Amino acid sequence: ELGKQIGGLGDKFGYFTEGLALPSMERILAERFGMTASLPRARIRKNGEEIEIDVLAYANDDINLAILVEVKSRVKREAIEQLQKLMGRFREFCPEHRDKAAMGILAGVDWDQDVADEARKAGFLTASIRDEMFEITAPDGFEARRW
């Protein structure tokens, strides 16, 4: 029973963190990347399986890009693997976006040591909260991998 309560509290804190991230992340996605659609907590089901994307943003036409954002209150190394897996399954679950390039952003409040660097080495943009707003934290000239 206590385990369920603790797990439920963790879920609620995760939703709180996602809600905190959403306004600034939507601004970044629109202004920096030209995203025209932004879907928070996108749940996609296919063949009895489900994936959840904290923020799915995309733009068609000349931009032709989808961005998947994973938001964590505490970012550990496992979050990189989780986002890699999500990127790998994205087109399977969202075939309507199969012709778009896809990028991933790992966003977090509290980062374990060296995890942001490892995420960028894996090709992901990183975002951290500063002054109650998320900002992209990649160095100048960093190019996110496009899947």
UniProtKB/TrEMBL annotation:
SUPFAM superfamilies: Restriction endonuclease-like (SSF52980). It comes from the Bacteria. This is DUF3782 domain-containing protein. It comes from Candidatus Kentrum sp. FM.
